[in-house]
Design a protein that fits this description.
The structure holds two protein chains of two kinds.
Chain A lengths: L1 E5 L3 H12 L3 E6 L2 H11 L3 E3 L5 H6 L7 E4 L4 H15 L3 E5 L5 H7 L5 E2 L1 H13 L5 E6 L4 E7 L20 E8 L2 E3 L12 E7 L3 H8 L1
Parallel strand pairs in A: 1-2, 1-4, 2-3, 4-5, 5-6
Antiparallel strand pairs in A: 7-8, 8-11, 9-10, 9-11
Chain B lengths: L1 E5 L3 H12 L3 E6 L15 E4 L5 H6 L7 E4 L4 H13 L5 E6 L2 H6 L6 E4 H13 L2 H11 L1
Parallel strand pairs in B: 1-2, 1-4, 2-3, 4-5, 5-6
The chains are: A alpha/beta, B alpha/beta.
Chain lengths: 217, 144
Amino acid sequence: MYIIVVGGGKVGFYLTSVLKEEGHEVLLIEKDLGRYMALETKLEELVFHGDGSEVHTLEAAGAARADVVAAVTGRDEDNLVICQVAKKRFGVPRVIGRVSNPRNEGAFRALGIESTISGTRVIYSLIVHEVDAGELIPLLPLHRGNMTIVEVKLKADSPALGQLVRELALPKDSILISILRGDDILIPRGETKLRRDDTILALVKKGAEKALKEVLV
Amino acid sequence: MRLVIIGCGVMGALLANTLSQEGHQVTIVDNDPKAFRRLREDFDGKTVLGTGFDEEVLERAAVGSSDVVLAVTNNDNVNLFAAQLVRKKFGVPRVLVRLFDPEKEKIYQDEGLELICLTTFGARAFQAALTNERSVESAQAFDR
């Protein structure tokens, strides 16, 4: 896969490094000359100097053959336009926009950018999770929010404690993805027995959240 | 007409002062309180402090009930974000956008926005000046 990352802050730098390690072809675009030069000493030819919201920069970066463009600058307005230019002008199949102000997630969607990630929202979810243990915490909306990855921590009064996964009356439109137990990550099988303090990730379709909650919380 | 201007830079303030004097009802938005110093003392419109692409700020500026919105900050991406929101979410009938990058003009021309690219505009003025048209015009202006 060829991935273009725009914005060489911490998010962009680590994202580029991880993608490179995983063997992907990746290019990081940075607008600020000073930051570009600092990045170049670490990433060498994987970093490109230019304004990623401008057509000629994306063109020179080979956006026309990119599989993914990830706009992760610290500015929501730049991320929106980068995604739109990549999509409209270069037909990039997958564009992802980082959103700092969670209020802008809805705006991005209304303006044709479906795939957004908000660090603020994720951290907020974690805080709410601490306060509100035992609830289903939506972590990642998928397919325009018609499906969500949720997290739930099993409390002492969860009806699922001591049950095998195959015994759970899980709603049809949901599946358990993983269980975090202490430092272990388990992939749930039919024979996996649920315990107190297990943190479960589940995939659930819109409308089935309530039924899933009744089984686990 | 009820107008909302996004961006109180040199151009936004010039437009706000002129349009307000012409009798239009003007609201101007900027995220820097100092920017409003560019407005003349007799400017009788409203000022709204905040980011032009923040829906809550746009609501405070009552864009929903405006006839025209002018997005004229000195940042293309801010203008494009604000203008598209105003058009799509608030349904403002006319949205005028200041742009610098002519390439963006091509990409966004089908979004129901009226794009005014200052670079294209300026280049034409320079070309016209080179071919003497303007010097003829200004000579005529002097004659009058």
